[in-house]
Amino acid sequence: MATPQRDSPAPRTGEGAPDSAARRPPFSANPEVGARGQRTQQRILDAALQAFGQRGYHQTGVATITELAGCSRASFYQYFASKEDVYRRLTGQVARQLGASYESLRPLTADLDGWQELRTWVGRQAEVYARYEPVFTAFPAAAETDEVVAPGAVRTTERNVARFRARLTTVTMPPRRLDPVIRLLLECQFRTLETARVLRSAAPGAYATERVEVAVTDVIHRTLFGRRDDVNVRPPSSGPPPRIDFGPDMQALLDRDATGPASSATTRRTREALLDAGRSVFLRLGYHRARIDDVVAAAAVSHGTFYGYFPDKKHLAEALGVPAIRQVSTMLDDIPNVADGGPEGPTALRRWLRRYNATYAAEAVMIRVWVDAELDSPVHEGDAAAAVEWGRRRIAQLLRSRGFGDVETEAVVMEALLSAFGARERSPAMVDAAAHAIERGLLGL
Question: Are 406 and 212 a contacting pair, CB within 8 Å?
């Protein structure tokens, strides 16, 4: 899930969170309720899920949830202490359903039966994602302000890594090397579903769900068991997906970033001061909580000066996000082609992954601020898809050199894997895990 106030009497995050409805003190001396109360509680949870999907985590409040649920605030507070408490309960539902999916997983093997079992499991995971997509997408925003959410997710992930490893009876890699690979593949799985969803928002006829899930299955199976043409290799797609272009405003920003603004030294200094202030404020508060008042105070300029350079907060976020996107995209152009079998291939790939991780981790917050700004404005949400497609095309060029498989769809998987890997600083063990997944799972070496 890429990732609330302490007024709840007990965290409700994880597989141990209760399913039954219960009134919170002091609303009732008898906290247990019957079927009607359970329906009310679930209606509130469903409304919150809808609100998080439509408005985002920070833009959703208790009033929005109760309006969608058709209940009073008093009824809401019988069951939940806050919006944060509702989100924790939803993450608990996700954790339990994913846990059940792992428990249903039978032994995974290198043959076609093992591939089919993995494919069925990927489908179950995708069903959970589709049902609770707003929980996954809201996770980074929730984790910013809730000290319970992130540790709960870490515990759930570690349990699931152990469950998955227990099904790999024929893999000989020791757990200290295998666990980081599994952890990255699990992150990649959900990141791929999100990446495909963003692409489909601008190209509805492309990136079919079935094909994406099969590509995820093939990459995971090859990573664990190696390339087997009769098991984990698909024929190429019928043709390349449609190109997704940036809108005119975003393209103008990209062109300006590439050439630099033509302006006086004083104008450039003022603009840089505003950008530095915006970067500091967004890092501290995130996109939704940041205000123009915060930016002008940090830059020590007037509101009039701010509006002389940026029409609103969204345009400031774009001006900061575009250089970050360009920086990461440029790194993709430099990925070494280890498929040629040169002696420096493995070393070069790990060296590049360390540089990529350092670059992406440094720019990740600004990229997310930009994405939040774009998705907050439906007119511009196509630019988020165009940015993803930009990276996917560069990765597809690399994968074509391997000479097999569904390159266009698996480029989505590789972009998601690199995005998951790069989003935060990684240990040497995770660098090795990423290299292993690319070499075996994506290049078939």
Answer: no
In contact, 70 and 92? CB cutoff 8 Å: no
Considering only CA atoms, which of 246, 348, 13 is closest in space to residue 147?
Answer: 13
CB atoms within 10 A of CB 395: 22
AA identity, residue 78: Q
Question: What is the largest distance, in Å, between two alpha-carbon atoms of the chain?
Answer: 73
Query: What is the distance between the alpha carbons of residues 309 and 266, in angstroms, rounded to a whole number?
Result: 13
Tens-place pLDDT, residues 183-215: 999 999 999 999 999 999 899 989 999 999 999
Q: Please indicate, yes or no, if residue 428 is contained in any of the structural domains.
A: no
How far apart are the C-alpha atoms of 314 and 437, rounded to whole Å? 36
Check whether the bond before 26 is cis (ω within 30° of 0). yes
Residue 294 domain boundaries: 248-405
Cα 276 from Cα 288, distance rounded (Å)? 18
Strand partners, 32: 22
Residue 240 within a domain: no
Between CA 131 and CA 93 the distance in angstroms is 11
Q: Report pTM.
A: 0.86
Quick check: is 227 in a domain? Answer: no
Number of domains observed in the structure of the chain: 1
pLDDT in tens, 365-423: 888 888 777 766 655 667 888 888 989 999 999 999 899 999 999 999 999 999 999 98
The C-alpha atoms of residue 414 and residue 346 are separated, in whole angstroms, by 17
Tokens of 77: 């507070």
The CATH number linked to 333 is 1.10.357.10
Helices (H), 20-82: 35-55, 62-69, 73-79
3-state secondary structure of 269: helix
Q: Are the beta carbons of 102 and 163 closer than 8 angstroms? A: yes
How far apart, in Å, are the Cα atoms of 141 and each of 129, 146, 320, 382?
Answer: 17, 9, 19, 21
| Structural domain contains residue 312 | yes
* Structural contact between residues 274 and 295, judged by C-beta atoms closer than 8 angstroms: yes
Sequence-separated (6 or more) residues with CB below 8 Å from residue 372: 56, 141, 286, 287, 288, 317
- Average per-residue pLDDT for the chain: 86
CA dist 160 → 103, 204, 210, 225 (Å): 9, 32, 24, 20
Q: Give the per-residue pLDDT at 22.
A: 54
What span, in angstroms and rounded, lies between the C-alpha atoms of 149 and 251?
37
